[in-house]
Amino acid sequence: MRTSRREEVSSERSDTSYDEPDLYERLGKYYDIWYEDQTDEVQFYRQLAEQTGGPILECMCGTGRSLIPLADDGYEIWGFDRSHSMLDRLTAKMEHMDEDMQQRVQVHHADMRTFTCPRKYKLVIVPFNAFLHLLEREGQESALRNVAEHLEEGGRFVMSVFNPRMDRPEELVRHRGTKTAVSGEIISKFEAQTFDQPLRRTTVHYFIDISKQDKEMRRVTACFTIRYMSYQEVVELLESCGLEVTETYGDWNFGHFHKNSDLMVFVAKRSS
Fold it and tell me: What are the C-alpha distances in Å from 30 to residues 126, 133, 187, 208?
C-alpha cells in the first residue's frame, strides 16, 4: 500500500513556526467530528479540479477532509502534513479505500517550506487557514516559491485565509457549537482569541468539553498562534514568489470578495 511510506524532510531554518509540539495530537481526535458537515470548501476544490484536471497536490492535508473526496472523484493526488497525529487518522481512513483509489493517493510527512516531489501539478491546494501557521515572512516565501516550482504551466494554486476583523473582543470565550459523536459523547467547543497587532499574530485558545451519560465531564485544551494577513499583503507576497493572483473570492460559492467578507480565497497561476 503506497500510503504507508512517509518521507521526512528536514533542513536548517530560522523560522521556528513548526518547532512547537504537535498540537493536533490533542485536537486530532475531534477534528473530523467538528468539520464533517462543513463541505462547502471541499465542493469548491472539486469544482476547481474539474476546470484544471489532475494531478493534484494538497499541502497540509490533515486528516484528508479534502484529499479523500478528490481521490474518490478519480484524481491522482499527493498530500503531505507535518502533524503525525493527523496523518495517522488519514492513513487509517485509507485502509478502507478500494485498491484503485489507494493507487491514486500518496501521503507523506513533510514541511511546506522544504518538500520536494518528482513531478509538477495542475492544481495545488493549501486548505483554509493552514498557511497562517507559518509565522515568519522567510518561511512564507520559502513555502510559496516551493509551490510555484511544483505548479504546472497553466495550473492553478488556491490558498484561503480568514479576513481579519480587529473589532472582535479579546479573551472573550465564545461557544462554537455542540455535537454528538457516534460513541454518544456530547462535544462542546469553545474558543477565545487574543491579538498581537505589532507582530500581526493571533493566539487562539481552544476548550473542548466532552460529556457522556453517567460519566464526569472532561476538558481538552490547546492553543496555537497563527499570523493574520490583509488582502494586499497576500497579493504582494504571492507576486514576490512568482505567483499571480487571477481571482479572489469571498466565500466558497465563488462569490465576489469585498472588505466585509469572512474569508479570502486566492486563486493564482505561475507568473509569466
Answer: 21, 19, 8, 9
Residue 186: give its domain's CATH number: 2.20.25
Asked if 187 and 217 count as a contact pair (C-beta separation under 8 A), the reply is: no
112 and 43 within one domain: yes
Helix runs in the chain, H state only: 24-35, 40-52, 67-72, 84-94, 99-103, 137-149, 231-240
Q: Residue 38's domain spans which residues?
A: 2-163+229-270
Same domain, 147 and 47: yes
Q: What is the CATH number of the domain that holds 236?
A: 3.40.50.150
Quote the percentage of the chain above a pLDDT of 90. Answer: 55
Q: How many CB atoms lie within 10 A of CB 123?
A: 25
The pLDDT score that the predictor gives to residue 14 is 35
Cβ burial 195-214 (10 Å sphere, 16+ → b, else e)? eeeeeeebeeebbbbbeeee
* Residue 68 burial (C-beta neighbours within 10 Å; 0-12, 13-18, 19+): buried
Q: Which residue has the higher pLDDT, 100 or 38?
A: 100
